[in-house]
Design goal:
The complex is a heterodimer of chains A (249) and B (612).
Chain A lengths: L1 H11 L4 H16 L3 H13 L5 H13 L3 H13 L4 H12 L14 H8 L2 H25 L3 H30 L1 E5 L3 E5 L8 E6 L3 E8 L2 E5 L5 E5 L3 E3 L7
Antiparallel strand pairs in A: 1-4, 1-7, 2-3, 4-5, 5-6
Chain B lengths: L6 H13 L5 E6 L3 E3 L4 E11 L3 E3 L6 E17 L2 E16 L3 E5 L3 E4 L2 E4 L3 E6 L32 H10 L8 E7 L3 E3 L4 E9 L3 E8 L6 E7 L6 E6 L2 E15 L3 E5 L3 E6 L6 E6 L3 E6 L15 E9 L3 E3 L4 E11 L15 E3 L3 E9 L2 E14 L3 E5 L3 E6 L4 E6 L3 E6 L1 H9 L37 H28 L3 H25 L2 H20 L8 H10 L4 H19 L8 H14 L2
Parallel strand pairs in B: 2-10, 12-21, 23-31
Antiparallel strand pairs in B: 1-3, 3-6, 4-8, 5-6, 7-10, 8-9, 11-13, 13-17, 14-19, 15-17, 16-17, 18-21, 19-20, 22-24, 24-27, 25-27, 26-27, 28-31, 29-30
Helix pairs in contact in B: 5-6, 5-9, 6-8, 6-9, 7-8, 8-9
Classes of the chains: A alpha+beta (249), B alpha+beta (612).
Chain lengths: 249, 612
């Protein structure tokens, strides 16, 4: 029991920046020796100790992809994309998705405009698009209060506040999607999706490692999921990993 | 089953059966009561009056091994009061070989009829360790050569013995022991997937001219491979329990059990023709069943182990050349060689870096039986076409198998193979001039689909969504809040800047009341001068507030007039004038006036309260 507690405690201890950089370099070096498994172990160690970030997630996803671990590869590359992304993230994510067995047919148009807009923009960019004109507009208003009435300044303030509204809407869309829409990646080699949340129920269809799904409602160990083309069913939660989570599967 | 007997015999049986009781009976008898451990004996079971559908069920013979079983059946019609009834007579002859010394009890044989089970009598024989002479064969008894004299002169040589011996050799078998089938396996306990060799022999002491209608055991649950299937009878001398036989191999198979458990192999059957030409006779023989114990493979199999991989194997991989030019193929040969179920083995699939294109392999197989063991070689040949220049490594291959001899799992591995690819002459030609005559296959292909490399530097930060960052809320709320605060301050300041007569009056009244309260506090302790000064200030402040203008410079009459014009009550005007006069008197003639502080305070209060 005490050993368990000790190991739990040790796993929670974070690395110092120097230690973290050393482990990161160790992983990169292992990958260079064609030891993708060793690289994966190093990057996982960092994540498990709370030393995450887009760089670690990208390297871990790439090491998984090199080993053919498609579910983990898509998961970590998708997390890297959400944490900042980059051209290399997009390239490897495209390769990983291209290797996924499942092909979702009839998915076009099912995704709402808001979801597509959110997927195409970053929350930080949306925040800046809102904050800059918002602060500037109120700055002008404050200047007006101090200096006295000025028509041009009032018009400028009104214009800036008007410009900040789309940014505010985008931030709100990011908030709604981020707080209410949960996406996950299939980790199991084959995941049976059932008609009801019951292990004995009929299998509606099967998914394979790397497929992306949207999570709806949970019931016991099962969770209801939906594919981009609207197909729905129930699957075991433990076979899926949430993209917006930081837990390491 | 085979129908035996003749029409005459059937008629006799019919007559006898009519007279006899209709109840079925079973009788068992052995040809000898004493037998040697190396001898054989014959158990004969006869079931009479058996109803149609009856069958003789042999018991398990503990202490004896069944060498051969022969079954015969004849049917007859029994006429009874209720009409004709079909009855059977069943005969089963079993050749047995004792396996231990001592008293051997043969349990009762059961006749299973539609009406029930009828059991025979149990039998007991004595098994000795030494050979025991058996009963004389039928027809082998010496004839009485001197009629009229008692038979049997043991010391006399029989002059016809050689002739009779030749006759006996050539004639039909006199008993089951002269012609029988025997199945044997080289081991009775094997692992799943391990080879066991089954051989079916026919043993004879008579001339055997033909074997036909062979029925070999069904081998469900086994992978099988023929080792020998002789097309003609080739005899070899063999001795069974001290008796010389001619034995001919009918079939030899390699069996590879697929499932664990105790497997029963059915007896083989066949028809054998003995003698020659018109003296030939056809005999049906049933061999012995066999029991095989198949053990499961022990735990501890390596990951991905295939249960068919049982035996002893070597794995090899080689390249036809360690160097190659762009566009020139080399051959990768992967071979698996050894003893085991070669046909079921799956060779490990070769892989190569993306720079080397591996085409689908061609397979080759050579399987043979050496000393009754199946062995061979399976190989795959891959055509390797280099797409890029450089030195590339073909990863090692591994193959895991279970070795039944050492009872262990083994893994054999190949060495990694290195292939150096150079541009070659065609590449030099391309570099030297126009590439028209150089095929595309010699280009150094650099595809775009490769993985992007890892990042070398890391920032260990996981940015939260913008709305969860502390600065965002502050940056969004502070500007409007600051603007609102600023606006509020401005409004207050503007309000304060505005002069309202009513509020001025109120403010002046409040100030006057304050001063009057101060005067009240001086009433007991202060001097007359201080007290009257406070009272005067209070009244002056009140009147200035009500009039909206200062009183300095006004005479008493002017003050009265202004107050009257402002609508002040007359009593209040007089009270105010009197208070001010009193205060002036105290100030300018302190000793001349006797001041009634209480009265002055009341009058001042009346002034302040009397003008609402």
């Amino acid at each position: 029991m005490s050993a368990l507690l000790l190991s739990l405690l040790l796993s929670q201890v974070s690395y110092s920046p120097a230690e973290a950089h050393a482990i990161f370099a160790e992983g990169v070096e292992a990958y260079g020796r064609d030891d993708a498994a060793g690289a994966e172990a190093a990057f996982r160690k960092l994540l498990e100790h709370g030393m995450g970030g887009a760089d670690v997630a990208y390297n871990l996803g790439t090491a998984d992809l090199a080993q053919g671990k498609l579910g983990e590869a898509v998961l970590f590359l998708e997390r890297a994309r959400r944490q900042g992304g980059g051209a290399d993230v997009d390239a490897n994510l495209t390769i990983a998705r291209g290797r996924v067995v499942d092909q979702v047919v009839g998915a076009s148009g099912e995704e709402g405009m808001v979801a597509r807009l959110v997927a195409a923009t970053s929350s930080a960019g949306a925040g800046l698009a809102f904050l800059i004109p918002w602060c500037a507009g109120f700055g002008l208003l404050m200047l007006l209060s101090v200096r006295g009435p000025s028509r041009s300044m009032l018009a400028g303030a009104a214009l800036l506040l008007l410009v900040s509204l789309p940014g505010a809407g985008l931030v709100f869309a990011h908030y709604v999607v981020g707080e209410t829409v949960h996406e996950a990646v299939v980790l199991a080699k084959t995941l049976p999706v059932r008609e009801t949340p019951d292990a004995a129920s009929k299998v509606a269809f099967e998914l394979h490692a790397g497929s992306g799904v949207r999570l709806l409602a949970a019931s016991g160990t099962f969770i209801r999921l939906r594919l981009p083309n609207g197909l729905e069913g129930w699957a075991e939660q433990r076979e899926l990993a949430r993209v917006d989570d930081i837990a390491v599967p | 089953m085979r129908r035996t007997g003749s029409a005459l015999g059937a008629a006799m049986v019919l007559l006898l059966a009519t007279a006899a009781s209709a109840a079925p009976e079973v009788q068992a008898e052995v040809d000898r009561t004493e037998v040697g451990l190396m001898d054989t004996f014959i158990l004969t079971i006869r079931a009479s009056n058996a109803p149609r559908g009856s069958a003789v069920q042999l018991p398990r013979f503990d202490g004896a091994e069944v060498l051969s079983t022969n079954r015969g059946e004849s049917s007859f019609i029994q006429l009874g009061s209720s009409g004709p009834i079909i009855r059977q007579e069943l005969t089963v002859t079993v050749i047995l070989h004792p396996t231990r010394v001592g008293k051997l009890t043969l349990p009762p044989v059961e006749l299973r009829t539609p009406d029930g089970v009828v059991k025979s009598n149990p039998l007991t024989i004595t098994v000795r360790s030494a050979h025991v002479a058996g009963p004389p064969a039928a027809g082998a008894q010496r004839p009485n050569m001197m009629p009229g004299f008692p038979a049997g002169f043991p010391d006399l040589e029989d002059p016809f013995a050689a002739l009779r011996e030749r006759e006996r050799e050539a004639a039909s078998p006199h008993g089951e022991s002269d012609l029988f089938l025997r199945s044997e396996v080289d081991r009775k306990e094997v692992y799943v997937g391990e080879q066991v060799t089954l051989s079916v022999w026919i043993y004879s002491r008579v001339d055997l001219s033909q074997v036909s209608n062979e029925k070999f055991p069904k081998l469900d649950g086994f992978w099988t491979e023929d080792i020998e299937s002789p097309t003609s009878i080739v005899n070899e001398p063999r001795t069974v329990n001290g008796v010389p036989y001619r034995a001919a191999l009918l079939k030899r198979k390699a069996l590879f059990p697929m499932r664990a458990g105790t497997r029963e192999l059915e007896p083989a059957e066949m028809d054998a023709t003995t003698g020659f030409l018109f003296a030939g006779r056809r005999e049906h023989r049933v061999g012995n069943p066999l029991t095989l114990k198949v053990k499961p493979l022990p735990p501890g199999a390596p990951p991905g182990f295939v249960p068919a991989n049982v035996g002893n194997f070597q794995l090899s991989a080689e390249l036809s050349s360690a160097t190659a030019e762009l566009g020139s193929p080399v051959t990768l040969r992967v071979a698996l060689e050894g003893q085991g179920n070669m046909k079921e083995l799956v060779l490990p699939r070769a892989t190569a870096p993306a720079a080397l294109k591996l085409y689908e392999p061609t397979s080759q197989e050579r399987i043979s039986a050496v000393h009754d063991r199946i062995e061979g070689k399976r190989s795959h040949e891959y055509l390797v076409m280099a797409q890029r220049t450089g030195t590339f490594e073909i990863p090692p291959l591994s193959f895991s198998y279970f070795d039944p001899e050492s009872h262990r799992y083994e893994t054999v591995r190949t060495q990694p193979l290195s292939l150096t690819v150079t541009p070659g002459e065609a590449g030099a030609l391309r570099a030297a001039g126009p590439a028209g005559g150089v095929p595309d296959g010699v280009r150094n292909v650099l595809p775009a689909g490769a993985l992007r490399p890892l990042r070398l530097e890391a920032r260990f930060q996981s940015p939260a969504p913008v709305w969860r960052r502390p600065f965002f809320l502050a940056a969004a709320l502070v500007p409007p809040a600051a603007w609102m605060l600023l606006s509020l301050v401005g409004a207050v300041r503007a309000r304060r800047a505005r002069r309202d007569p009513v509020s001025e009056q109120r403010r002046g009244t409040r100030a006057a009341r304050g001063r009057l309260a101060a005067a009240a506090r001086l009433r007991a302790t202060g001097t007359d001068g201080a007290f009257s000064e406070e009272v005067e200030r209070a009244v002056t402040a009140f009147l200035e507030a009500r009039l909206g203008a200062g009183l300095s410079g006004l005479t008493r009459d002017a003050l009265r007039q202004r107050l009257m014009q402002a609508g002040a009550p007359t009593a209040l005007v007089e009270d105010a004038a009197r208070v001010l006069d009193t205060c002036d008197a105290v100030r300018f003639a302190p000793g001349a006036v006797r001041l009634d502080r209480a009265a002055l305070l009341r009058e001042a209060e009346r002034v302040l309260e009397g003008w609402e």
